[in-house]
Fold each of these.
Amino acid sequence: MFSVIIPGRPCLTDIVAVDGQPGQPTKFAFTFPFSPSFSDVVVFFLPGTVLPQDTAAAIYIQIPESNPSPNGPEFRFLGALANDKPSAIFKARQAETNLSGGSAQVTGMVTLGISIEPIQTVAPQVAALEAQSSISQSSSTALVRQSPQERQQKAISTKVLAQRIIGNAFNFLASFASSDPSNKGQEVVPLKSFQDWWSKFERRVQMDPGFLEREESNI
C-alpha cells in the first residue's frame, strides 16, 4: 500500500503489517538504519491504493536516542496522507545535540509507522502540528530575542494545545448535534459539520498562527 524514500537511499518497499484484521491490516511499519544522517522522509501511496472512506494514514516516527529513556523512544506524529493527498515530504528530527553544541552519537534503527485512522482522530493532530510549526517559525524570525526562561514560560505543552483544539471542535460541533433514535437517542454530528469546522480551523491558523496560545481563543 505504501512506500518510503529517504533522500540518498534506495526506495523502501519492505513494509510490515503490525495490526488489524486478517487481510485488512490497519497499522504498518518500515524500519531502516539511523545512519547516514537524514532530515526528511517521503511517504506515498503505491498505485491502486485507496483508503476506506473518512479515514487517513497517520505517519509516526520513532528515532533512537543518545540517552534512551527506560521506556524507549516515543513515536512522534509527522503528519498524514489521504486519498486527496497521496504523497508528502515530512520533516524528521535530526540527531540530538549535546551540551557542547555538537551532534550526539546516535545509532540503531528508525521505525516509521503508518496507521489507518478516522479523520476525526487525525485532523486535530494535524492542526496541532501546523500550529506548533507556525509558532516555531514566528519565534525563529522574531526581531527581539527572548531568553530561554521567557520562551519556556510562553511555550504551551502539546497536551494543552490538543485540549484547546478538541475544546474548539466541541464548541463548534455541539450546535449541530441531533438525537439518533436508532442508537438509543445518542447525539450524533454530521460528518459535513466536522469538515466545515476543519476548513474554518485551517483558515484561522493561517490568519492567526498564535491564536491557540491565548486561553480565550474561539473560532
Amino acid sequence: MPFYIIPKMEKENNYIEYTFRVAPLQPASDILIAELGEVLFESFLETEEGVLAYIKKEDWSDTILNNVTILDNDIFKIEYDFKEIEQENWNATWEQNFNAIQVDEKCVVRAPFHEKPEVEYDIVIEPKMSFGTGHHETTHMMLQHILDTDFKGKSVLDMGSGTGVLAILAAKKGASTIDAIDIDNWCYLNALENVERNDCSHINVYEGDVNLLKNKSYDIIIANINRNILLEDISEYSKCLKVNGTLFLSGFYAEDIPTISAKCKEHHLEFTSNLSRNNWVAAVYRKC
C-alpha cells in the first residue's frame, strides 16, 4: 500500500516539494503515490486537489518523473509544479498533519504527542514511512472489523502489516499468537517499534512475503494490501487458514468484489459481508 502522511523528515536535508493537481482524484492519487514511491519520493500528503509529494534534493533530478507512467495516462488529468523547501522543523510539520483517529468510539489510533484518550483500546504509533494510521479508508474499516470480531485465544496473521496497527489491535483484543509480515524493510522496522511501544510482546514481526507462510496455521488472517497482490496470494492464505477461519481483505474498490470473491471461491473461501467507505471496501470471507 502507498503512504498517506508526512513522516518525520531529516532536518539536515532540503526537500523538493511537488504539488500535483489530479482529476479525478481516485484511483489516480493512489496510483500516483505508489509510482512516486518507486522513484525515491519519501512522503506524501493527500489534499482536496491531489497530492503533495516530497523528495530529498540530493535524490532529485530533472528526469525524476520520466518513469511515472500515470502522468501519460489520458484517463486522468494530472498537472504539477515543484519548488525547493528550505530546512525547517519537519517534526512540527509532521505533528501538525497527523491527527488522532477514533473508530466506533472504542479505539483511538494516535501518535505519542497526542493526549491519552478515555477509550477501551488506545493504540500509540509512530507512523514514519509506513502505511496504517487509520486515516485511510481501508485501515479504518479493518479496525472496525477487528473491533466487531472475537479474537480471544485466536491465532492471527496480519499480512502487509505496515505500522502494525491491525496486529496491535488484535493483540489488545486477546489474540493468543500474532504474526505481522511486511515485505518493506521500513515497515518491518517501524512495526517492531510500534509493537514494543504498545507492550505487545506476543506479536512476531517478520520481513518478507507469502513464502514465510509455509507450514503456518491461523484462525484469522488480515490482509490490507492491494487488489493485484491479493489475487496472487489468496491461494496461500487459504492453505494456512483453518476450516471455519476468517479472512479479512481490503485494499480494493467495490467494483473489484466480484473478481476477489471469485478467486476466493476457487480456494474454498466464501464471501460473507463487507464494509464500504468512499468506494473502498473491506470484505469478510470464511474458510469452508
